[in-house]
Automatic annotation (TrEMBL):
Name of a matching Pfam family: Spermine_synth
Enzyme Commission designation: 2.5.1.16
Compartments in which it is found: Cell membrane
Protein name stated in the entry: Polyamine aminopropyltransferase
Catalytic activities: S-adenosyl 3-(methylsulfanyl)propylamine + putrescine = S-methyl-5'-thioadenosine + spermidine + H(+)
Spans annotated as Disordered: 1-26
Organism the protein comes from: Streptomyces himalayensis subsp. aureolus
Pathway field: Amine and polyamine biosynthesis; spermidine biosynthesis; spermidine from putrescine: step 1/1
Name of the gene: speE
Transmembrane segments: 35-61, 67-87, 99-124, 136-160, 172-195, 201-223, 235-253
Ranges for domain PABS: 250-489
Binding partners and assembly: Homodimer or homotetramer.
Length: 549
């Protein structure tokens, strides 16, 4: 484990001669040692939960899991070394020092997720950027929590030697064993227990309360006679205040989330769905406008979605299109445009998050917007990740539509890799076409042209094109708050096939509502001016996308 392996070696030692002999313990030495090791076990579990909580909330706010994990872990490991050195000064007052450190750690770690989310909502969401205040706060929390965690083991070493002297190697082995096992339990409890049952905010607050209670119980249960009257009163007051703050947070967390949600999305929140994959929020409907968000990022706005889906679907449908595969697109809007073309016999929608499809089926406004496509017997939903499903498919398709999250998000990079497009090309019929939405060539030209290069590396011939977007103010605010580049004002696509496909609309289908041949031709010409040469394809082992690209 990164967190525990970086803990400094014990620096404590029993009080030297000349100091007052410590008071006897209220329990036998064997019981006392077991209780100290149990305390180390619980504190280690809480410490790892704090680490994972910071990584999770930062990834939720930015989507760039690799960067956030690297920042949090590297800063915390560095800070733990500082904390271990700083703990030397507390060896003579190990019990009081340990109690104070656990109280502060419980407060800081327990409130960290709520504080980060609040800063993101009420500063970043108002036009700031995640690269500013919230990211600095993330580093500050990682630094402070790391210092406090690093100070734990040296003080626990003093306390365990205070109970019964033993050789340093044996004491280190016992203490680190409890520490490592505690880290294992904390690491498993976070994704499998705390997140499903409590969520990110409540989970951190509950962990802080457990941390504070453990520190208080250990100090007052075993070493209260080592404390002066002043130290006892001070620790009681501090821990009572910390537990009061954490308990208040637990009670008010639902109200906090509601207020934060309204600050982010506005008062007209229509539906909130939390799944194993993400948080889905649907807003609007009363005024005829719907906005769909995944983990706080705008995915669809009814103000301009038709323009986007016209551009995504209709050029790819110019040719044979009896069998169509849609990767992503669980909202049903791409399928709606596909079904406008005569001759479509089957549409398979591969969607990782079944909650998106369920919302698109059951919400009256969203279902009306997608034309109730999931009632059409030609539409079939295939649950699961696109990469895994492509590997297991053996049927061929005339059209494959890739309507997937932004390639600059770390978790989506594999869906824009050479291997992924190789799997997709294997499913194309002889005259089949693949179309990929690849972000904005205006705001992220390197990302777009890397996608185009990667598609070509998979053996396909490409025809890039773009259309002007029409972002709403809420969409622009979310793009700014999520820490990406400036809000894009275009949508850019790569159309590909075994032979280079022409850029034209299907003459047999109804004319798209917001797209003409002249718009397509003009967009393709403008897109050529943004070309970035010399790029290399993105692969699973060498992804070439990033939030800063």
């Amino acid at each position: 484990m990164v967190e525990t392996s970086a803990r400094a070696a014990p620096t404590g030692a029993p009080p030297s001669r000349g100091r007052q002999r410590p008071a006897p313990l209220p329990v036998r030495s064997g019981t006392g040692r077991s209780l100290v090791l149990l305390g180390a076990f619980i504190c280690a579990a809480c410490g790892l939960v704090y680490e994972l909580e910071l990584v999770a909330i930062a990834t939720y706010l930015t989507g760039d899991s690799v960067t956030q994990t690297s920042v949090v872990l590297s800063v915390m490991v560095f800070a733990m070394g500082i904390g271990s050195l700083a703990a030397k000064r507390l060896r003579s007052r190990a019990a009081a020092g340990f109690g104070a450190i656990e109280a502060v750690l419980a407060l800081v770690g327990g409130c960290s997720a709520m504080a980060l989310y609040a800063v993101f909502v009420w500063t970043g969401g108002l036009g700031g950027a995640w690269s500013g205040g919230p990211r600095y706060l993330l580093v500050a929390f990682a630094l402070l929590i790391g210092v406090l965690i690093g100070a734990e083991v040296p003080l626990l070493m003093v306390l365990i030697q205070r109970i019964r002297r033993q050789d340093a190697g044996g004491a280190v082995a016992d203490l680190f064993a409890a520490d490592y096992v505690g880290a294992l339990i904390g690491g498993l409890a976070f994704p499998f227990l705390l997140l499903p049952l409590c969520g990110q905010l409540t989970g951190a607050l509950v962990t802080g309360a457990v941390n504070a209670l453990t520190g208080t119980a250990l100090v007052f249960g075993l070493f209260r006679r080592d404390l002066s009257v002043r130290s006892r009163r001070g620790l009681i007051a501090v821990n009572a205040a910390v537990l009061g703050v954490l308990a208040t947070g637990i009670v008010l967390v639902d109200d906090f989330e509601q207020a934060a949600r309204e600050a982010l999305y506005g008062p007209d929140v229509r539906a909130v769905v939390r799944t194993d994959e993400q948080e889905i929020v649907l807003t609007g409907g009363s005024n005829g406008s719907l906005d769909l968000y995944f983990d706080g990022r705008l995915q669809m706005s009814s103000r301009d979605e038709r323009r986007y889906h016209d551009a995504l679907v209709h050029p790819a449908m110019n040719g044979p299109h009896a069998r169509v595969l849609i990767l992503g697109g669980g909202d049903g809007l791409a399928a709606r445009e596909v079904l406008r073309h005569p001759g479509v016999r089957r549409v398979d929608v591969v969607e990782l998050d079944s909650g998106v499809v369920r919302l698109a089926r059951t919400d009256a406004a969203l279902s009306a917007l997608n034309g109730h496509v999931y009632r059409d017997p030609r539409v079939h939903v295939i649950d699961g990740g696109a990469f895994r499903r492509l590997r297991g498919m053996d049927r061929t398709y005339d059209v494959v539509i890739s309507d997937l999250p932004d390639p600059a998000l770390t978790r989506s990079a594999k869906l824009y890799s050479q291997e992924f497009y190789g799997l997709a090309s294997r499913l194309l019929a002889e005259e089949g076409r693949l179309v990929v939405h690849a972000g904005s060539a205006d705001s992220r030209p390197r990302v777009f042209w890397t996608v185009e290069t990667t598609v070509r590396a998979a053996g396909l011939r490409t025809t890039p094109y773009r259309v002007e977007g029409r972002l709403t103010r809420s969409a622009a605010a979310f793009e700014s708050a999520s820490g990406g580049s400036p809000a894009p004002h275009d949508w850019s696509f790569v159309l590909a096939g075994r032979t280079r496909p022409g850029l034209a609309l299907d003459p047999s289908a109804p004319r798209p509502d917001s797209l003409t041949q002249a718009v397509l031709d003009a967009g393709a010409r403008e897109l050529g001016r943004t070309r970035v040469d010399g790029l290399r394809p993105s692969t699973l082992l060498h992804p070439r996308y990033g939030a800063g690209s």
